[in-house]
Design a protein that fits this description.
This protein has 530 residues and is mostly helical. The chain is 48% helix and 5% strand. β6 and β7 form a beta hairpin.
């Protein structure tokens, strides 16, 4: 380390790219005359997975806008940009900032990503030793991590709720959260007499297709965002995706506009077709708020309160409102708790022992399967696909194609603008891929091409036939589904939620089952050709 001209400070307050919360606990007690806020753009954060251009652009643009807001407040901000400082890692950026500012202590909000927390914890210990030897400067050798109060359930509270149970269910956690935060409650009972209206939120579009789909709000890139786009193209030009359709909130004001737009124009019909898919319909009635929530531009409680208030004041469909609130108050908080509880083992989980390499067309959408082509193409264009496209198309194929879970988890983390590991990994490894053997899901999410056909129009534009298990026109979703059941017949038969699937499998004669195995073997050997 060199010894640059330094500007002493009391506290160096580290703010990470997904901690853009103006009410962050890191700012408690800040002294504008003595403390410095540090933000670091590190190359590693876009390369430890092959981060898509839209994802990197969103993070960097939101960070730069947040730093700009803090400066407008009169705060001292040390911002280390990729094109100027060019830090390889967060730890390197932190070390350089410490050398410049010589703080007494580094503090921040606990990172959501275990990898980041561990690397920074090690780094600060090493930097403190160096400071004592070379600068005669005493730096506390541990970062003071504040708890992230953005969330509505702390890791300690979740751990207490989970106890020693080996099987966790979101539904029961969700009821606790509803009672604790008095959301959609009528005294001690849930409004409408039920906790969960999920069965009312699974309708397809039918042959007529989606009708009167509301447009998504638009956020024209300003000068700062355009500057970031140029940096991303320069620094990460070979990364997947493109920026031609970049359209995500990068400021608190834009995030609030996104929330208002959803509440006013889509919430009332959110539930009805939330599982349906259609060609050239990337957004439908979905909220498009997850990226703003995960960057901390929005607070989950304000989102939940806005939805409940709209239901009470405007009489919106209860099933839709409850379904949305369940995702934010229930599933999002639950998933974060699971991550804190089950890491690092969750990252290496591989219940079925799958080892196939992720097909190259996940990064290009150049596949003959129209359902995959549509979902992957949409993902690469927008950095987004909705939960059913992720769970029952790109994720389900990963299960039945026996793809190594870690490969697919890295892909999900790389391509979606809302992807941060605490949210992405449990959803992918635990739910979509069943890699942890059903720790919090009661069955693998698998289906044949018939499901995709029922919930979308994708099959109509495909060379494969969803009803065919074998032969040259057999749908890979269908063939590999039946092959998966054949490979795991005993386990699936023992599970009440998949036992009917096995009974259907057992209706196939020996010759047909063998034909499925052979066709599946051909497909699995040539996944890149599908």
């Amino acid at each position: 380390m060199t010894q640059p001209e330094h500007v002493p400070c009391r506290h160096l307050i580290l703010i990470l790219g997904d901690q853009l919360d103006r009410h962050s606990a890191a700012f408690d007690g800040i002294d504008l005359t003595q403390d410095v806020v540090l933000m670091v753009e590190a190359r590693e954060e876009s390369t430890h997975v092959w981060s898509a251009k839209a994802r990197t652009t969103l993070f960097l643009s939101a960070m730069r806008h947040f730093a700009q807001e803090l400066r407008h407040r009169g705060w001292r901000v040390a911002y280390r940009a990729l094109e100027s400082e060019g830090d390889a890692t967060l730890a390197a950026g932190l070390a350089a900032a410490i050398a410049q500012h010589r703080p007494q202590r580094v503090l921040g909000v606990e990172p959501g990503d275990l990898r980041v927390r561990e690397s920074l914890t090690v780094a600060i210990k090493n930097i403190a030793v160096y400071a004592r030897k070379n600068w005669a400067h005493e730096l506390n050798d541990s970062i003071l991590w504040h708890e992230d109060r953005h969330f509505l359930c702390s890791p300690a509270q979740f751990r207490k709720w989970a106890g020693k149970s080996t099987s966790l269910r979101m539904e029961f956690f969700y009821r606790v959260m509803r009672r604790q935060h008095r959301v959609l409650m009528d005294g001690d009972a849930p409004v409408g007499g039920k906790w969960n209206f999920d069965l009312e939120n699974r309708k397809g579009f039918g042959r007529a297709g989606p009708q009167a789909v509301p447009p998504a709000p638009e956020y024209a890139p300003d000068a700062l965002t355009r500057e970031v786009m140029a940096v991303v193209e320069d620094q990460f030009g070979s990364h997947p995706g493109n920026l031609g359709k970049f359209n995500w909130p990068v400021t608190r004001a834009e995030a609030l506009r996104a929330l208002a737009d959803f509440i006013d124009h889509r919430l009332g019909q959110f539930g009805t077709h939330q599982d349906a898919m259609w060609t050239d319909m990337p957004f439908g009635w979905h909220a498009l708020l997850s990226s703003s929530l995960n960057l901390k531009l929005l607070n989950p409680l304000e989102v939940v309160v806005a939805a409940e208030t709209a239901w009470r004041e405007r009489g919106l469909d209860l099933a839709s409102v409850e379904g949305f609130i369940r995702q934010v108050l229930g599933w999002r908080e639950f998933i974060r708790g699971v991550y804190a509880l089950d890491m690092p083992a969750l990252k290496e989980a591989n219940h079925f022992g799958h080892g196939n390499v992720l097909p190259a067309w996940y990064w290009t959408a150049a596949t003959k399967m129209n359902c995959m082509r549509q979902c992957l193409g949409q993902t690469l264009a927008h950095g987004y696909s909705h939960h059913i496209q992720r769970l029952m198309v790109t994720g389900m194929f990963g299960v039945i194609a026996q793809i190594r879970p870690q490969d697919l988890c890295d892909w999900y983390l790389a391509v979606y603008v809302d992807a941060v590991e605490w949210a992405e990994l449990p959803n992918t490894a635990g739910m979509a891929l069943y890699a942890n053997g059903g720790r919090f899901t009661s069955k693998p999410y698998i289906a044949s091409g018939a499901y995709v056909h029922r919930m979308s129009n994708y099959c109509g534009g495909c060379q494969y036939k969803p009803t065919q298990r074998t032969g040259p026109e057999a749908c890979p979703m269908t063939t590999l589904y039946w092959n998966f059941l054949d490979c795991h017949e005993a386990e699936m038969a023992a599970n009440p939620r998949t036992s009917l699937m096995v009974k259907n499998l057992q209706r196939l004669g020996p010759a047909e089952r063998q034909a499925v195995r052979e066709r599946a073997g051909e497909m699995l050997a040539e996944l890149n050709a599908l």
